[in-house]
Design a protein that fits this description.
alpha/beta, Four Helix Bundle (Hemerythrin (Met), subunit A), Rossmann fold, 2 domains, seven-stranded mixed β-sheet, 11 helices, binds ligand LNRAV4D5, NagB/RpiA_transferase-like, IF-M1Pi, IF_2B-like_C, Methylthioribose-1-phosphate isomerase
């Protein structure tokens, strides 16, 4: 079994999160026991990655439930809904956040025959179940993705859709960990992924420490690597897949999809079904988070542009479904026509 970092752990009645803002230089865990702390952890990207955000939110919804001081169930439910509305404002794009919040609220409403104290205990169990399910889902995504790859392949990934973006295995990296267990001879190129550099400080960190052959490239080198025939497949994660198969993912994914078409390289999206949002019809409807300008012009500590210059910093872009070869989920491999075939995942 390959060595993987632990991103999220519930122990001593607290949530422990690996602080991803200080990787790869420092491996440090921070503990959280309030809903406000969880909100900050998601917004500040101490924890990030759609599935990891969802699991964190589930524990956050338990911590929020604990803070509601009433034994009257209707009062509790009203307060719980407000806790969910608050936590949903921490980041807008990854649908796993609202998916986890909605699941915890649905669970509380379906179990309102319990006492409030008993319900709170059960909410923690539901959060732990969501945690366990994520690990199982990622393993299955890896198995399905592996069926599309071959020993000796060269892979390109973008941002971090790895163990660090989930509870284990990752989505895009799951196949890489499984290929390592099969002693495949393969190599991975990781786009550093400006401006937050998740590809170099997270993906390269986790793959390198697991002993996987990983090479960091700048985002602008992707075309050259593809032109040299080094890449047999591009595998990325997603923050939200619309009903028509459009994919919101880290900024720069759309660029890769255009290059992939040019070089006739398959573009695979590795994604758990909770990231597929059938209520959002097309990518145009997906809210795209814009983050602070300093991520772009002060990412290395010093200003790399005039302090007051205009900066555009969308954290994500939308890759049109026409540029996608397949969406690989735990339930199977989905190809075009995506609208029709994604629906089948939920029948
Ligand atoms: C397993 S999907 C992770 C997905 O989330 C990342 O965004 P962020 O680091 O801002 O949370 C990136 O888009 C990854 O593909």
């Amino acid at each position: 079994m390959s060595k993987q970092v632990t991103t999220i752990e519930w122990k001593e009645d607290k949530l422990f999160l690996l602080d991803q803002t200080v990787l790869p230089n420092v491996v440090a865990y921070r503990s959280f026991d309030t809903i406000q702390g969880v909100w900050d952890a998601i917004q500040d990207m101490i924890v990030r990655g759609a599935p990891a955000i969802g699991v964190t939110a589930a524990y956050g919804m338990y911590l929020g439930a604990k803070s509601i001081e009433t034994s009257e169930m209707s009062e509790f439910q009203k307060g719980y809904k407000k806790i969910g509305e608050y936590l949903a404002t921490s980041r807008p794009t990854a649908v796993n956040l609202s998916w986890a919040i909605d699941r915890m609220i649905d669970f509380s409403q379906k179990n309102d025959q319990l006492t409030v104290d008993k319900l709170k205990e059960q909410l923690l169990e539901e959060a732990k179940l969501i945690h366990k399910e994520d690990e199982e889902i990622n393993y299955k995504i890896g198995e399905n993705m592996l069926s599309l790859l071959s020993d000796g392949c060269g892979l390109l990934t973008h941002c971090n859709a790895g163990a660090l973006a989930t509870t284990k295995y990752g989505t895009a990296t799951a196949a890489m960990y499984l290929a390592q267990e099969k002693n495949w001879d393969f190599k991975v190129y990781s786009d550093e992924t400006r401006p937050r550099l998740q590809g170099s400080n997270l993906t390269a960190f986790e793959l390198h420490q697991a002993g996987i052959d990983v090479t960091v490239i700048t985002d602008s080198m992707a075309a050259v690597i593809m032109s040299k025939g080094e890449i047999d497949a591009i595998i990325v994660g997603a923050d939200r897949v619309a009903a028509n198969g459009d994919v919101a993912n880290k900024i720069g994914t759309f660029n890769l999809s255009i290059l992939a078409k040019n070089f006739n390289i398959p573009m695979y999206i590795a994604v758990p079904t909770p990231t597929i949002d059938m209520q959002t019809k097309t990518g145009a409807e997906i809210p795209i988070e814009e983050r602070d300008s300093h991520e772009v012009i002060k990412g290395f500590g010093e200003f790399t542009a005039p302090k007051d210059v205009k900066v555009f910093n969308p954290a994500f872009d939308v890759t049109p479904h026409e540029n996608i070869t397949a969406i690989v989920t735990e339930k199977g491999i989905v190809r075009a026509p995506f609208e029709e075939n994604l629906k089948k995942l939920f029948e």
